[in-house]
User: Which sequence fits this backbone?
């Protein structure tokens, strides 16, 4: 056990040394120094790597991409996932990371045979009628082979790269170590929560390593579209699949962006764009489960302008609450209502600091004004959502990660749609879905269910509050609970109350002088002036001066 741990630690140190060397090679020596990792490489090599080079003169986003590519599968996947997160990294980095290449030389067919036998319990010749030895595609995590089953069904077999899981786990250990070092050594980085980002990435890549997850995603996607004739989802052969093997129906068609081929085949491009957009609107607004990587390589056009989706490894999922709030924001965007957009935006996201709502409203209004005179068909929803994400970053409003993923997917869909049809209008296609959702929300059945849910929550609250209060009081009696109250920002209120109290006292004194002077005037005693008691006249005079002074103070304060 101890030997295994030491071996793993030694292996991690060697890999960390390799990572450090590559970072320095691409001009990130300042980052290595800040993390205190320069002691991992030899002095001579350090001096050599720190010398200016052509690489160091490249733009920073390009160097980041090149470094990730050289660092291998884990880091390539990290870059690809970050390229879908405009809420975490600037747009120029996103554009560059989208170029990350995930194509590597295929591994040997003998290893494929060995893995298939180990996972499926039989030789390739016993399972398949024919099996293509040369893969049709090879990536960092696995490769794809075409095959034919004994019953004649054509399939694709996705086979995981040998030992890739160990490589990924080693790199994840190092990434967690680097994230913790970054948070500790670079305080400014804590705003982006590097450890949390690595945690999210680790969860994503581990799910991607389990091919069963992709199969289940495909099954769920097919179920969601079982009544739709415009979408086709390949069948999963579960009897020939496992955690490291995925056997899926081979669907044949033309890539959705192969314009010349589509025209040659006689397809209606306008219909293709419309069908693709409708399919995506259903995924977002109705199902809350959408294809998060809808690039042209993953979408085929089949006979009848049917859209065939492939590769379900990366899916976006919106829970009921997020979907409802997202729909409200979506409606506000289409209506171009700044106040409603801000309210829904704050309801959907989490504010990490006190927000200057006035400045936020100005920025939202400026964003909306760009589209004010434009017809609905000229509004790009993906672009609009991305601008909203940028504004949320500016005001440190944490939007759900799925929201940024959604914006990226919408941009891709809009780009494909406009390539197919120059008059493509995603906002126009979305409008009927939005109207249907609004009508559904106002239906008696939906309102009644909402009323019952609210009633249930109210009942639970009524039951819960006395219990919690009782527990708190018992803790206070035992001395195990200390209740402290703090106030902030009440100085202005206290000052205002002091002024109000002073004015009331001033007014009471003024009233007393007037009443006293009136009584003296009635007594007709003491020295007189022009037939009136002098003391009474002086009292009225003082009261007049004091009253005039009070009126002047009130007028100057601007609060009558």
Assistant:
């Amino acid at each position: 056990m101890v030997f295994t741990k030491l071996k793993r630690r030694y292996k991690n140190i060697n890999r960390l040394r390799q990572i450090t060397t590559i970072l320095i090679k691409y001009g990130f020596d300042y980052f290595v120094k800040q993390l205190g990792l320069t002691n991992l490489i030899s002095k001579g090599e350090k001096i050599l790597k720190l010398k200016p080079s052509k690489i160091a003169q490249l733009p920073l986003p390009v160097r980041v991409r090149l470094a990730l590519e050289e660092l291998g599968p884990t880091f390539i996947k990290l870059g690809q996932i970050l390229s879908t997160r405009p809420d975490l990294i600037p747009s120029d980095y996103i554009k560059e990371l989208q170029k990350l290449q995930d194509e590597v030389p295929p591994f040997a067919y003998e290893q494929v045979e060995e893995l298939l036998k180990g996972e499926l319990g039989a030789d390739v010749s016993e399972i398949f009628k024919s099996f293509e030895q040369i893969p049709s595609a090879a990536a960092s995590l696995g490769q794809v082979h075409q095959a034919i089953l004994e019953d004649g069904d054509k399939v694709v077999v996705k086979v995981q790269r040998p030992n890739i899981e160990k490589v990924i786990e080693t790199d994840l250990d190092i990434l967690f170590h680097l994230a913790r070092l970054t948070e500790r050594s670079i305080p400014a980085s804590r705003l982006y929560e590097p450890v949390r980002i690595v945690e999210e990435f680790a969860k994503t890549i581990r799910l991607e390593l389990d091919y069963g997850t992709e199969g289940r995603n495909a099954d769920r996607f097919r179920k969601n579209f079982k009544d739709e004739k415009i979408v086709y989802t390949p069948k999963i052969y579960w009897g020939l699949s496992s955690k490291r093997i995925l056997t899926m129906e081979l669907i044949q068609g033309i890539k959705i962006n192969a314009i010349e081929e589509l025209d040659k085949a006689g397809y209606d491009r306008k219909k293709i764009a419309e069908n693709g957009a409708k399919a995506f609107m259903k995924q977002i607004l109705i199902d809350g489960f959408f294809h998060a990587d809808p690039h042209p390589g993953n979408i085929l056009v089949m006979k009848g302008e049917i859209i065939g989706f492939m590769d379900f490894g990366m899916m976006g999922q919106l829970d009921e609450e997020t979907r409802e709030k997202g729909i409200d924001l979506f409606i506000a965007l289409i209506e171009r209502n700044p106040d409603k957009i801000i309210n829904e935006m704050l309801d959907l996201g989490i504010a990490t600091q006190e927000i200057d709502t006035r400045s936020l409203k100005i920025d939202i209004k400026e964003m909306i004004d760009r589209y004010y005179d434009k017809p609905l068909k000229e509004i790009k929803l993906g672009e609009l959502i991305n601008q909203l994400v940028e504004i949320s970053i500016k005001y440190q409003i944490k939007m759900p990660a799925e929201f940024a993923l959604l914006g990226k997917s919408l941009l891709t869909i809009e780009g494909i749609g406009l390539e197919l049809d120059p008059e493509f209008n995603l906002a126009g296609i979305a409008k009927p879905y939005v109207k249907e959702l609004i009508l559904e929300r106002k239906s008696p059945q939906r309102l009644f269910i909402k009323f019952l849910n609210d009633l249930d929550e109210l009942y639970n609250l009524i039951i819960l509050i006395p219990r919690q209060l009782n527990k708190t009081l018992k803790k206070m009696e035992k001395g195990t609970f200390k209740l402290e109250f703090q106030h902030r920002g009440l100085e202005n209120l206290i000052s205002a109350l002091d002024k109000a109290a002073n004015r009331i006292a001033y007014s009471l004194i003024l009233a007393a002088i007037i009443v006293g002077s009136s009584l003296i005037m009635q007594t007709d005693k003491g020295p007189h002036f022009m037939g009136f008691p002098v003391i009474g006249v002086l009292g009225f005079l003082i009261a007049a001066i004091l009253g005039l002074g009070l009126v002047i103070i009130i007028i100057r304060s601007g609060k009558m």
About this structure: The CA atoms of residues 172 and 354 lie 35 Å apart. Residues 259-442 form one domain.
